[in-house]
Amino acid sequence: MVSGESPAVARRRVRLALRAAREERGFTQGHVADELDWSLSKVNRIEKGDVTVSRTDLLAMLELFGVDDQQRIDDLVQAARVSRQRGWWDEPRYREHMTAAMLQLFQFEGEATAIRYFHPTLIAGVLQTREYASFVLNFWRHDLSDVDIETRLEARMRRRDHVLDRSDPPDYLLIFDESVLHREVGGARIMAGQLKELVSLTRAGKVTIRIVPFTEAAPIAMLGPFTILDIGDEENAVLYRESHLLDEIVHARTNIDRHRRIFEQLWAASYTEEESARLIEARAATMISSLDQRKRPG
Asked: Which of 144, 149, 161, 279 is the most buried (most CB within 10 A)?
């Protein structure tokens, strides 16, 4: 087992090993359910990583699949134990007010060696100031309770340290459409503060940002936000996608590879890091200057 492995990474390793062992025997999920007297949904949820697997259930599956290598069994039993450990994201106030995909995302972010993020309309959650994040989350006030919004805001602020201030932070690559710089989310003052924060993070080398020019923007309207997280290397990656009140963790390699190609195409079509940084700084300076002028008397 990898030292310091997070529960989400351990769960992923267990589910992939079980699926591979099942497929090697040529068993369907239905066959496994019948043999173990389980529901089909239970087998499916274990293989998808939606739930952890108990030691008893793990050993029953490995026996059914004919896995008799004791070292392999011990390794998977240990990984299953780690997968059931709890972190800050498992505190009741988070579990009760956030989606299962979000909670898994937090764990993967803590293990990722590289993160690629794209959003056509907003700044990434991890980079958001409290005021910017509060305005964005309040957009959903008709669909989410006040407690939901408050909890998600707290978690969003906590993710900054969890991701960017790790002792071994990931390579964080972000792509935004140029329109994001001109969309005054929360008003000029909040947006100016958010852009100053982006400037600070890029200067500190914590993130690398590229801006897609307006001239390349037409296809972006068809793309939703997504995050690709490499866990160790590109061969071990997960995809996080979100849309209106829906989100998901995707493990399918074909989907991950397709989004990686989209990201690389957008990256190549974007302004360079230096050009993008200058655009962000110039837009922030313009907004701050405009605010200063408004404060001047008469």
From this structure: 149
